[in-house]
Amino acid sequence: LLSPGHLVAAYRKTHLCDVELEGRVTMKESSFTNPGTEIVPPVSTPAGKLGLSICYDLRFPEISLALRRAGAEILTYPSAFTVPTGSAHWEVLLRARAIESQCYVVAAAQTGKNHERRTSYGHALVVDPWGAVVAQCREGPGLCYAEIDLDYLHRIRREIPVHGHRRPDLYGTVAAATAAGLA
């Protein structure tokens, strides 16, 4: 992320997309890159505090929740989802991340043929903290705009204070009980 004249944050994707959809798509990012080793703290911008994630990270709600705990108000997911995964999961995952974190979600998306074996789904969009899609590009290249209303975001957080209702004292105990032979 750049500010006039200097780099203010750099995020390296922490989850690599190694998938094989039989007869449709095979992808193995781990064959040509290494995963990032940290979640970058949210960056203050004129629009709000920005949490950085990339593409496949979208499938892991733990990142969006960690960014929310760190003060994020806007989550970003620049992506290149494939057509099969994008048409099935893109919007619903973005809306879920917005609802559970109570953040705006801004998702730029590559569209069209990347190379001979890969076509990206596209459909860049912006979701508000209530889960409503407030701006979207459909097929092909495009640009969409949305208002980021931080007063609205904070109202949603006050009205449904899920962040304060979380029970981290319970999370992870099911796996621990199962491992101990108690299940």
Polypeptide structure, described:
With 183 residues, the protein is of the alpha+beta class. It is 27% helix and 23% strand. The chain contains five helices and twelve strands. It has a six-stranded mixed sheet, with helices on one face. The protein is globular. The protein starts with a strand and ends with a helix.
Keywords:
two-stranded antiparallel sheet, 5 helices
Summarize the biggest pleated sheet: 6 strands, mixed
Give the N-to-C terminal Cα separation.
46 Å
How many helices does DSSP assign? 5
β-sheet strand percentage: 15-25%
Give helix % range: 25-40%
Task: Provide a quick synopsis of the model.
27% of the residues lie in helices and 23% in strands. By secondary structure, the chain is an alpha+beta fold.
List the helices and strands and how they pair.
Elements: E1 2-3, E2 6-7, E3 18-21, E4 25-28, E5 43-45, E6 48-52, H1 61-69, E7 74-76, H2 83-101, E8 104-107, E9 111-115, E10 118-121, E11 125-127, E12 133-136, H3 150-159, H4 162-165, H5 173-179
Parallel strand pairs: 6-7, 7-8
Antiparallel strand pairs: 1-2, 3-4, 5-6, 8-11, 9-10, 11-12
